Amino acid sequence: MQALPVFLRADPSTVRQWIADWPSQFVWFCVVSILLGAGCYGLVIGSWRDELQAVYTGIKLPMVLLLTSVGNGLLNGMLAPLLGLNVTLRQSFLLVLISFAVTAVLLGSLSPVALFVIWNTPPLTGLTRLWSVEYGFLQLTLATFVAGAGIAANMRLLPLLRKFSRDARSARNVLLAWLATNLFLGSQVAWVLRPFIWDPAGPSQFIGRQYFKGSFFETVFNAAWRLIHSF
Amino acid sequence: MNIDPIPGNVPPTIPPRTPISPAPGLQKLGENPEEREPIPNMVVAIEAVLRQPRRIMYQLRQPGSGKLIGSMLLATIICILVYGLVVGSFSMHDQLWAAPVKLALGLLLTSLICLPSLYIFTCLSGSQARLAEMVGLLSGLLMLMTLLLVGFAPVAWLFSQSTNSIVWMGVLHLLFWFIAVFFGLRFLEAGFSHTQARSAAGLNTWIIIFVLVAIQMTTALRPIIGTSKTFLPTEKRFFISHWGDNLEKAAKDSRSPD
Fold it and tell me: SS3 breakdown of chain B: % helix, strand, coil, rounded to 5?
């Protein structure tokens, strides 16, 4: 618990020392932070629908972060030295995990705010539709929290990356490459594991079979295509 | 009393120039002792191409570089077979073996087709590199490219299991391929810059040829993602016409009611 403020301040020298001295303990620290922080936030956002959805989202949200960091671990580890960052595969995995852990801790700290937003949002009824204002508002607010936490966490990562790189440009390039890969895979993992808030198609399910069909980007592209052709 | 700080007949002293160590890219290969360490096996070669590409470039100039080239080609074949398995997992069944075989075959054929022009073009550019060194640099390009494709494999697998759209998967694999080729070509260009070539025009022309041949190879060996009754296509086509037809078919499918 005492380590949390130091971790959040992300002092480059201290974190670098942690990575070097206690790599396995540090991994566990990050994993537990993700499970607790994102889990808390997931519980809150799922609670708008019902208790079961809250439990499911509380499990699924940390899963998105962990699966994304593991799925991209090898790729991120290869991109780092190619773009000028002097880190090993394990260190690059840890650095990405740190950014996710900071995101999760931030989300955890925003959970009471999110709960307050949900408490003030009209409850889910039989009349609620996907295009209902309250659902749209909730989606937008909760997604803004996630985006804000993600941006803040990555901004904390930049000075740390500078510590490992030859110059500021390499650090920035690596951060952008990691952001792109994590956003790309993270979006699809989240797409597969949906719903996080609500799905009108049926009762609360951990993952419905229909959610393995289609991809996030395909759906966005098709929606944009239809929109362009409607004019 | 008129005091002149700099006497008229004495020029101002210019501070001595502090020696600036050149950037790693401009240093002569082998100046760093780490680069002179031999590369005994495939694992070290993989590590070196990611972290110390100059070590590979230096070792390719040494006698007995054939073993290193062999290691890099072996790593390339293993990596492309792994990525091919992921590509084949979209259609499953026969494509699980057909896609890896076609990708490995296509990559080796593309390299063989383009190797003579690479050597000739680099010689025309004034490069002093031997054929073995160019073969080594090409092997390094292939190894780095396929290594990155293996890095993309978990992402590609997730999308393969999620979508039914061949066009979407084709676009995704092409995107990954282009990113991997970009880094591979960067390695080749870095190696080429140490061969005392007068210009990079020859190499740049060769890069265009290589990319076009590789893309056409995917059409010549189709289907790699989807399925077919025959292992190889019965109709000859250019990749632009093949892609155009696929995009048109996908657009028709998306317009038709479910």
Answer: 65, 0, 35
